[in-house]
Amino acid sequence: MEAYRSKKSMDEIIHFHTLRYRVEQVFIIHRDSGKVLQHVSEFKDESIEEANMFSETLKAIQSSAAHENDPSVNTLQLGNHTVWVEQGSQLMLAGVIRGTPSYELRQVFKKTLTNIENDYREEINHFQDDATPFKACDDILKSCLKVEYGKKDTSLKPLWFVSGIILLVVCLWGFFSIRNAILWNSYIDRLNHAQGIVVTKHERHGNHYYVSGLRDPLAIDPVRLMAEYHIDSNDVTAEWEPYFALHEGIISKRAREILDAPETVSFRNRNGTLYVSGLASNSWIESARKKASLIPGVIRLKEENLFDINASELFLARVSVQLEPPQSVYMTFDDGTLTLSGSASHQWINEMRQKVRKIPGIVHVNDHNLVDVDVSELALLKERIEGHIFLFRVGGAIPVPNQDPMIRSLSQEISQLNDIINKVGSGHIEIVGHTDNSGSEKANLKLSQQRAEKVLSLLRKTGTNTRYLTAIGVGDKEPLRRSSSSIDREMNRSVTFRVLFH
């Protein structure tokens, strides 16, 4: 069977069982998430799912060791296999080794880990659960799949062959057994911390599990939670007795359900007092006052900023106090929706959007007709600046006469743009030099760059803040006019402007 899997001759298989050591699997693991970034194996059918399972087991064993004041686990025993672990600043390299490895192998692991962390520094720093960029390190990892043979003893070949199979089976059994135990314990720990669930008993018998306890009907569903921990619900016998939990979050959910509360109403519970805020009809408010005592865990109901939805003007007045809108903003409120129109600064609009989230009774905000005056001013300045065309004489970076007014106008507009752009984000202006098509490509690129830098110099002389200005030359690659008339060539001997926002 092993010969079939590895596609080697029987003699090679027997030789394999006389080895001193052999690295069978190597993993690169992200330390914070435990995610396997890449692994190589002598076994052709090794799956990435099994690799991730090994990572979870390894991470759990390391966490356990660290808890017992052992700051680093660099050697683990899994059945008759040894796991060597090298710790890097952000990655771990783990090798599953059969036999007794030499000291030189440890140096190979260290060097490989250092090379990967150096070569993939940017990918590691921006890692977001996508291991695709690390596929390229496959060849580096394969250098760790070392093997060292001892002297052949043909009399022991059959014994080694059988022993190897037994060891492999035991190792795999141990791995899956440990993994399943860790996942089950993690699942029970999650239940113990869930609101509305009390675990009174849990057991494991081989591959079957048993759990029992108390569960509030509004608590998380334990069966749905099993999928997160790769537990088959068919392998679990669960017995839950219903009860009413007194956690604040559960009581608030139960109050919303029993009182049939609208979206515009919010609840919070503290020490048996149910605080109600937001907007509701007068009939609902009266009904809530009567039914509150029927809610398990609620001793009294207290109306905290609870308004009759028909008295929206009073509610709107309170909202206005909190938002402090400028006179240019008009607000209306209807059925949980706050509608704003008019105009306001970019800063006020952003602050308003943050504040309304904390105001009970407001379910939706409609600000489609609210004009951001800063963004509008930016758009106008962008149009003005990009409308300027600064012309040059033939063959050089000497401007056409009588363009000083344009430079002064540009300076003022750029200063205004700099004042506003910091309020709404970031951006910069490209000063783009152009040429006609009469010269060579190399000469045109150089000349267009000189023309752009000339305009940048003229703006700097006027006192313009040129921090966000960049001079670039494009030669004749971006002509303003496509035809070859004298007027068109004159327009192409120019500098234009591009305003870019981030």
UniProtKB/TrEMBL annotation:
Keywords: Membrane, Transmembrane, Transmembrane helix
Transmembrane segments: 159-176
PROSITE patterns for this protein: OMPA_2 (PS51123)
Domain OmpA-like, first and last residues per copy: 379-502
Any Pfam family matching the protein: OmpA
Subcellular location: Cell outer membrane
GO cellular component: cell outer membrane
Main subcellular location: membrane
Designated name of the protein: OmpA/MotB domain-containing protein
Lineage: Bacteria, Pseudomonadati, Thermodesulfobacteriota, Desulfobacteria, Desulfobacterales
